[in-house]
Structures are given as structure tokens and as C-alpha cells.
Amino acid sequence: MAGTGVFEEIIEGDVFKYYTDGEWKKSASGKSVAIINPTTRTTQYKVQACTQEEVNKVMESAKIAQKQWAKTPLWKRAELLHKAAAILKEHKAPIAECLVKEIAKPAKDSVTEVVRSGDLISYCAEEGVRILGEGKFLVSDSFPGNERTKYCLTSKIPLGVVLAIPPFNYPVNLAVSKIGPALIAGNSLVLKPPTQGAVACLHMVQCWNLAGFPKGLISCITGKGSEIGDFLTMHPGVNCISFTGGDTGVAISKKAGMVPLQMELGGKDACIVLEDADLDLVAANIIKGGFSYSGQRCTAVKVVLVMESVADELVEKVNAKVAKLKVGPPEDDCDITPVVSESSANFIEGLAKDAKTKGATFCQEYKREGNLIWPLLLDNVRPDMRIAWEEPFGPIVPVIRINSIEEGIHHCNASNFGLQGCVFTKDINKAILISDAMETGTVQINSAPARGPDHFPFQGLKDSGIGSQGITNSINMMTKIKSTVINLPTPSYTMG
């Protein structure tokens, strides 16, 4: 169970501690932040409300630890990452329990998230050894006007202190996707978990602690965003920020100055369906892409753009599958579970009411109990409805009927977001042409959008983000190139 066994030291009374200098500590503030269970809508856990002075101490420890860590052999860093991965998988049950209670993620999916995170860490260790173990050797005479009098040796070096801020919907996996690359590259890591998901993150951090990483190298600081949020992201000790979330990322990017940024800020992923598509495949992917984890995914199908000639048949097939979705508490492995907060539920309801007022066809009766919203497919949605453009982050999927491929591409590209999109067709030539025309970071052909596998590049255009994620891309992003140039007194050529 959470907070017991090897996790016993991370809690005192009913408040979980924060982690710094290899120790679990209580905040000097004497205050805590409540974490509300989305299902019961009562306080489930409490975490420390850390102060700005504690942030300063964490940053100083991280800076000192990083200098020593950068001297640690690459194989040793990888060895410790593999150890952390094994410990994380071993203790998947209590961490998954936290995910169920903090973010109402179905029990089976919660376990999967933890196991996937362990796999990510191990892959990261192996990939890091490969790409960081290589450098480049350049010679000067390849550029016009130069003799071979200069040898340039390049390698990748760490940035310093990486600030990682994951979102509520994958708090463990998206924290690990930042921690692993940062550490294998020789950086230190300061984690600021989301409020909903913070306790799962604290349990995950204990697994790194048990693996034996140096003191100060990894820190996890909890607290109110209003008190330490800006202070963290604008701290002079931060050398890189990796953030996954929503509009907050835009504010961070405007204040970050010269600090390298890796950001994924959401999407309005469009699903374009042509006349020749396999409609059974499309329907299955709309269910999987639009309703899994109650639609609370950046890569969820958030608008279906279907050719008018096959729209009736597709809507009928999707409706039949929606009727089979199990709605209820996450402990029962239901398909549709409560959304993360009352404010989220209210926002989703507002989108539904707007669509109702403007004439959308409700394929199911709108139903809500607390934070639990029943799955809803909206047909005959028009561009003047909010749901056509706004990201619901809930179990509601709009269908817009189109009369041409160009109309579908236009709607997709008119969005402020550009994370992922998908196209369903049996014509690979059309699929490639549409993919090239869609202004999104990734296009899936004949499958719903998805972030994984975790070593694939993952990036967004426009308001969907800055930079690219995926294990290799993250390692490269969290390093910079260092060059050493050897100047020779006379040209030197290898003669073979």
C-alpha cells in the first residue's frame, strides 16, 4: 500500500514529505496541499507546501551534485538507471494505487503506466550509452581556403540543472521521460510534480533514491503553484525546463529567457476519414483514441472530420461501441472514469451546452454525476461551436461532416494546435499527400494518435509545443555540443 514498506519514510502523519539531498523532509512552512480524489471528491492525500527558500536550497544542492555526477562514467550512470527501473517495476502496485486515487486512472492502466516507465528508463540507459559515447572528428581542409591544420573534436556535455514539470494525466511516465534523459546525460534533476499525481511521483522518486543515486542529484519539491511556480521556472539555477501541460507553458516560455525549453502543451488532434476507409477500423480507433482514460490525453482524437458519404455509417458504428463502454470508478477498471476535477467537469459541460444550443446532434443523452461524465458523441458539429476548436480533455468527441479532403485539411490547419492528427484511407498516395499537408508534429495513418512508443519523436507545431521529445531527442535536447580544436603548426594529411 501507498506510504508503507519501503515507502514508509516518505510520509509523516498524514502528510507526504518532499525529497532533497537524499532525504525526505518536512517543509518549514508547516503547511500542506490537499489532493482531492476525483471519484469521492474528498481529500485523499496531503503533500508539503514548500517555500521559496527551500527551492533555493534544492537548486544549490542540485548544482553541486551535478558537477560530481558529470564526472561519473557513462556506464555507471546507465547501471544506476537500470537499477532504478527494476525497483520501479518491483513496486508497481503501491504507485498504481496512488494513480487510481489521485487521478482516477483505471487500475489496469495505472499498473501499465508504471511498467512502461520502468521500460523507458532502461531503454534510456542503453540509448544514452550509445549516443553519448560517440563524438565527431572534423578536419579543416574540407572547407575552401583551408589546409589540414585544425582538428576539431566534438562531444555532448550536460546542460546543468534540469527542471521537470509533468502533467496530471501521466505523472509517473511523463516525469520519468524527463528524468531518465536528464540523468544519463549528466544533468541533475529537480522535479515539480502536478498536484493531482504528486504522491505517485513521490513514490516513484523513492525508487530512484533506493537505487543509490548521489545526494542532491534528484529532488522532488511540492507546493502551491501560486507560491513556488514562477519562482521555480524563473530561478537562475535552472539550465533547462522540460514541461508538459497546458496554457501555463506559454507563460513559462515568455519568462524563461535564454533557458532551453522542451514543451508539449496539448492538441486538438483531428481524425480525417475518407470514403474508402475501413469504417470498422476507424470506429475502433475513435473509441480508443477519443474515450480511453476519459479523453484526458493530449493525443486523444478531439475532432472527427468525415466525408459526408460515409458519415451516417461511421456514426452508427461508433455509437454501437460507445454503448458498450463501462462507466464507473477506476478501481473497477471502467473505461470511463471521473475526470480529474470539478472545474474540468464544468468546462466539459460548458462545451456540451454550447454545442446543444447551436444545434449539434447528441448521439447519447448528456449525463453527469459529480466528476463522472458519460461518453458523448456529437454529430453535425459546425465550426461556430466551441467544441470544434477547444480541447475538452474529457469523454466528448465531435463529428464534423466534410465534402472534400481540402475541407478537412483546412479545418485541421485552422486550429491553434498542431500536435498530432490521423487519416484513414486505403490509398497510401492520398494518405501521404494529406499527411504532408497537415500542420501537425505527427500524422498517424490508419491509427489513432499516440505518444508512444516512447523512443519515437514526439513534437507539436504552433501552440502545441517547442522542441521534440522521445528518448533520443530528449537526451540530445538536454545536452549541448562542446568543441575542442587542435591547431597544428603545419598541415598534416593521413596518406593511407
Structural class: alpha/beta
Percent strand:
15-25%
Distance between the termini: 66 Å
**Residue ranges: pLDDT <50 for 5 or more in a row?**
none
Global shape: globular
Overall average residue pLDDT: 97
Rounded to the nearest angstrom, the radius of gyration is 24 Å
Strand order of the largest sheet: 16-19-20-15-14-22-23
> Major sheet, described briefly?
7 strands, mixed
Question: Your description of this structure?
Answer:
38% of the residues lie in helices and 22% in strands. It is of the alpha/beta class and 496 residues long. The protein has a 7-stranded mixed sheet with strand order 16-19-20-15-14-22-23, with helices on both faces. Strands 11-10-9-12-13-26 form a 6-stranded mixed sheet. α2 packs across α6, α3 packs antiparallel against α6 and α5 crosses α14. α6 links the parallel β10 and β11. The protein contains 14 helices and 28 strands. It catalyses: D-glyceraldehyde 3-phosphate + NADP(+) + H2O = (2R)-3-phosphoglycerate + NADPH + 2 H(+).
What's the quick description here?
The chain has 14 helices and 28 strands.
Task: Please write out the topology.
Elements: E1 11-12, E2 15-16, E3 18-20, E4 23-25, E5 32-36, E6 43-48, H1 52-69, H2 74-90, H3 92-103, H4 107-132, E7 136-139, E8 150-158, E9 161-165, H5 173-184, E10 188-191, H6 198-211, E11 218-220, H7 225-233, E12 240-244, H8 248-255, E13 261-264, E14 270-273, H9 279-291, E15 303-307, H10 308-322, H11 342-357, E16 361-362, E17 368-369, E18 372-373, E19 376-379, E20 396-402, H12 405-414, E21 417-418, E22 420-424, H13 428-437, E23 442-445, E24 458-459, E25 461-462, E26 465-466, E27 468-469, H14 471-477, E28 479-487
Parallel strand pairs: 9-10, 9-12, 10-11, 12-13, 14-15, 14-22, 15-20, 19-20, 22-23
Antiparallel strand pairs: 1-2, 3-4, 5-6, 7-8, 8-28, 13-26, 16-19, 17-18, 21-25, 24-27
Helix pairs in contact: 2-4, 2-6, 3-4, 3-6, 4-5, 5-14, 9-10
